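Limitations
The structure tokens in this dataset are predictions for the assembled complex, not deposited experimental models. Users should treat interface geometry with appropriate caution, especially where small molecules or nucleic acid strands are included. An illustrative entry is reproduced here so readers can see what is and is not provided.
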Amino acid sequence: MVGFVGDRLGRLGRFAWSGWSGLAAVALLAAVWQAGHEAYGDFILPSPMATALAAIGLLAAPENWTLLLVTMRRALSGFFLAGILGALLGVIAGYAPAVMRLSRPLLTVALGVPPIAWIVLTMIWFGASDATVAATILVSATPVVFVAGAEGVMTRDRGLDAMAEVFGAGPIRRFLSVGLRQVCAHLLPALALALGTSFKVAVMAELLANAGGVGGALARTRAMLDITGALAWVMLSVVALVVGEYGLVRPVRAELERWREAAQPWGVKR
Amino acid sequence: MTALTLTGVGHAFFGRTVLSRVSLSIRRGEVVALVGPSGCGKSTLAHIAAGLISAREGRVANHYRRHAMVFQDPRLLPWRGAAGNIAYPLELSGMSRRERDLRVRQSARMVQLEGQDLDKFPVELSGGMRQRVAIARAMAIEPDFVFFDEPFTALDVALKRRMQDLVIAAARHNRFAALFITHDLMEAIRVAHRILVMHHKGQGLVGERIVDGEPGNRDDASIFASMQAFLRSDIAFAHVHDVDERRRT
Ligand SMILES: Nc1ncnc2c1ncn2[C@@H]1O[C@H](COP(=O)(O)OP(=O)(O)OP(=O)(O)O)[C@@H](O)[C@H]1O
Ligand SMILES: [Mg+2]
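Predicted assembly:
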């Protein structure tokens, strides 16, 4: 138990330490941004400092928190829906070649239609509501997860399956104890991608459907030519996405990939 | 008392026959080595006998309680430590955690895995250690029948010997019967009571020899002498060391 907690704390510490490189990257971005600001002036590109202050100013107002939370709620519910549906169908397709062959063309179609077209369609179907945003996220994020799930099943180590079968594991037991872990290795990067897509699509759908949230706020700043405000909202939604990713996807991934870390030679821990 | 009987077993992959008319029977507590050139269908036969593939023809009858298998590659779960891998079949059989820990330690000790190594992931173990974990995993469930599918082919000579001794000792101690597949005749003579030779295209068994004495009591000189005698007196054995089956078409 002590070892278990200690190991996690150690990894958390290493992760926090790697935060320095993240900070350096942010500083670099800020420097380039500042240079752009000095070249083009306040109207085109407000300074990073002014933007950060504006963002903090936005957070001071409780109604802005509600806007952020609305977007986050929509993005996350769409993400969960897409994640569960995509993973489920992907795993089924991975095990059943017939389903896979059927879904390939459908997938191509689904991926070929741009998200913006889906927004128009779902707006007509559902109006300016949560359902519009959720449905748009669903169609744009599910295919990625689906493909990863199917890939995970199809590229699994069949030798391990045979091993489990020899020792008396039935099909379900085999999937839970052997297949699932291998599927997850494929699924998690796809889920991180899907989470990003969910946030982007949520904001876009809100903006176009005028459905409130961060997208609605962006539409308002655009109408008022409030560049600083627009950038501040962008900053806030990026922060929300980062919080979502590091709070949700990364911990699960770190837990599942402990053995991969063990495989890395000393000194190359990333 | 027989532990395993195969009668007229045959199999085909995608219409290509790789195995036909194989019959054999293994008594309780008997270690039988199955030798034959590469690609003659030994693994396929073991997989059929273990129920991983269903045979296209023939019958498989087993009278043992439970079997285990040591594969050619260790086939460890990469996300579990050595101890977790040894415990895996025990978990499948629904054993309590306390009893499991005990069994894992017992069977790890048998293959000389030390306490610290038990926490390591397979990627952190050497090839020989991984194979030892695989053997410990098979032994942990106390099987009364074990399939060994060329378990030591990838190991160097010294390690191979140690592993063979380990199997001999385990077979004695736990009194399991085994089908030991190999294409190394020396290895077969060291570990087995009886040796079967498979036709180079899987068309039945073409030779059978009972090895004098008990496994573990044979010295190197007598093993070498037996091998020479087998190779001289039985043409079936002469083909065993032909590695490339395509040369003989
Ligand atoms: N899953 C499979 N699909 C198609 N053909 C297969 C399959 N497994 C084995 N074979 C074929 O069956 C034949 C026998 O294979 P098998 O693995 O049983 O040989 P083996 O005697 O174990 O060889 P080795 O000593 O090299 O392990 C080979 O010609 C191989 O190409
Ligand atoms: Mg083989």
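Some entries come with short summary sentences. For this one: The two ends of chain A are 26 Å apart (CA to CA).
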